[in-house]
Write a structure and sequence with these properties.
With about 425 residues, the protein is mainly α. The protein is built from 14 helices and no strands.
């Protein structure tokens, strides 16, 4: 144990799982790695079912808004409202409206989970430490087994499903077997590592992190490894200087995205005109090509954008130069570029405001600096992966964000400023 580093998570005696809310959240924590390994898309179901179950606890049906930070929530609803307005000028308004409805549904479930977690008493938060420890170890074991056996457990489950169900599921493709799982693994592991550090010791936490890194080194999705290692650097900075560390994260995000914009508008274009091979891996070269096309479209409608979820329609008739891929394969693989493309400068400023307000709230947490560093590291991992790999409106990817937010809300001390 580390008495000097304890927060209200571990300063209380070990309580029994007596409250309905803490039981529900504990079950969700333990189910998270299982679902993330075998069916990442079902994380949406986990979020929705957890949120609905929380409504059976009477205290979660009242005072939901008062238990959430006002400014970030106002900015979330402002972004939701602007997205609805932007549906009207999207290439396919009816389809975009359906996507908007799903995003809003996931968001409302996530807010309910977060608000419920904030209402937990310190003793109830302490009860969650066992759930995070079990979930962290389980995630490492399942991920390792799937890596070593090329997805034998997943394949067995799919074959069993196909035997008992009238509709069949395809067997997983080995090159992308754990790509989505690794993203969830990289983000969720920060929470587990922090709990292990506080409940047991730094040695066990370091061993856990090493196991995570070894697994991420072995799997095929480089983005998860890069994001996790980059977040480790941010963790060290925030741990040393919590307030300044949050500023460093924001500046780093701005610099990275401005750097990408400079590359696609300068270096990458010059390289193409010189007909010289761009010295990067094919996947990164393709992402730069996507961003080049996206920023060209952004320049055409910089203020209001092309409409919510327009990425699925724009560029579908334009070859990318990489095999049969289109200029934008469903989404830009960069959340900042996607917001600029679809929601314009208006939506982008709302998103930036939300990020700044959230980081300000985290920096003001009345918590051990290791917790502040852990929260920022988890956010960093999620944002970096989102800046490389996934679409902003993918349901399972949004579900990961809200599940992690809910789990963090259940861990963090409740005596925070409402602003």
């Amino acid at each position: 144990m580390n008495p000097s580093r304890q927060t209200d998570l571990v300063s209380e005696p070990r309580p029994a799982f007596t409250g309905a809310t803490v039981r529900i959240i504990a079950v969700a924590i333990i189910l998270f790695p299982i679902i993330a390994i075998f069916s990442p898309n079902a994380l949406v179901v986990l979020l929705v079912m957890t949120s609905l179950a929380l409504l059976f606890d009477e205290r979660n049906r009242t005072g939901i808004y008062t238990s959430m930070p006002r400014i970030p929530v106002i900015l979330i609803f402002a972004l939701v409202a602007w997205s609805l307005v932007a549906v009207s000028w999207s290439p396919d308004p009816l389809k975009s409206l359906g996507t908007w409805g799903r995003v809003v549904g996931v968001t409302l479930c996530g807010l309910l989970l977060f608000a419920s977690g904030r209402k937990l008493a310190p003793s109830e938060r302490g009860a969650l430490k066992e759930a995070f420890t079990v979930a962290g170890v389980l995630f490492v074991i399942l991920f390792s087994v799937e890596l070593i056996t090329s997805g034998s457990l997943t394949r067995a489950l799919v074959m069993l499903w196909n035997e008992i169900m009238p509709w069949e599921s395809a067997l997983p493709d080995e090159p992308v077997l754990l790509s989505r799982s690794s993203a969830a693994f990289a983000v969720f592991s920060w929470l587990c590592a922090w709990v292990i550090f506080n409940q047991y010791s730094m040695r066990w936490s370091v061993l856990f992190v090493l196991a995570v890194v070894i697994n991420l080194l072995t799997q095929n999705m480089l983005a998860s490894l890069v994001a996790f290692l980059s977040a480790a650097v941010i963790f060290a900075i925030v741990y040393a200087k919590p307030g300044w560390g949050c500023v460093v994260l924001f500046v780093a995000l701005v610099v990275v995205n401005l750097g990408l914009a400079a590359v696609v508008s300068g270096v990458f274009q010059a390289d193409r005109e010189a007909a010289a091979p761009f010295q990067t891996m094919s996947s990164w070269r393709e992402r730069l090509s996507i961003l080049e096309f996206v920023y060209q479209r952004v320049a055409e409608r910089p203020v209001f954008g092309w409409g919510f979820d327009a990425s699925r329609a724009i560029g579908q008739d334009t070859p990318s130069g990489f095999g049969s891929n289109m200029a934008i394969p469903l989404h830009p693989h960069n959340l900042w570029a996607q917001v600029l493309l679809e929601l314009g400068a208006v939506g982008f400023m709302l998103l930036i405001g939300f990020v700044v307000a959230t980081l300000r709230l985290i920096a003001a947490l009345h918590a051990d600096r290791s917790m502040i560093a852990m929260v920022v590291a988890a956010i960093t991992t999620y944002l970096l992966i989102g800046n490389i790999s996934y679409g902003m409106w993918q349901n399972w990817w949004l579900a990961i964000a809200w599940l992690i937010a809910g789990f963090l809300g259940a861990l963090a001390p409740s005596d925070v400023s409402p602003d």
